[in-house]
Specification:
By secondary structure, the chain is of the alpha+beta class. The chain is built from 7 helices and 4 strands.
């Protein structure tokens, strides 16, 4: 999982604490220092199925100072994505991105229902191999006891 946040944001802090309490593994990325790229945003938008305006931080000072409430309606999707990629402070946060998971903003109920403990194939294969070794060892032990 990739957890994109602004460390000073209290909502991001709550989300990070929630992830930690749930035991969810994630990589942390500061949205102000490493804002999402155009390609990332385009991909996440397509995967999410959400309207693009959901990716904008409508409560942010930059959003308001640029007058985006009025301007977004006149911009096409391409222009909106390019604008989002210019400054991480325009992007709603936190963002949680993983295989089949795109969560924008922190709503505990939505995050609770998401498949956040997805495992990659290498991790699953390793666990299966460990189980097989354990089963073989138990069989060997029981044969030795007989």
């Amino acid at each position: 999982m990739l957890f994109i946040c602004y460390p000073k944001c209290t909502t991001c802090q709550r989300a990070q604490k929630w992830l930690d309490n749930q035991g969810v593994a994630y990589r942390l990325r500061d949205i102000q220092q490493h804002n999402p790229t155009y390609e990332e945003l385009k991909d996440w938008h397509a995967q999410s199925g959400l309207p693009l305006h959901k990716f904008f931080n409508t409560n942010g000072l930059l959003y308001k100072s640029l007058g985006l409430k009025e301007k977004l309606n006149t911009m096409d999707e391409e222009a909106q994505l390019k604008l989002l990629a210019t400054d991480g402070m325009l992007v709603k946060r936190p963002l949680l991105v993983g295989d089949g998971v795109i969560l924008i903003g922190f709503k505990e109920a939505a995050w609770q229902g998401a498949p956040l403990h997805a495992q990659d194939e290498a991790d699953i294969a390793h666990k299966e191999q460990t189980v097989q070794v354990s089963e073989d060892w138990l069989k060997w032990q029981s044969d030795d006891d007989a």
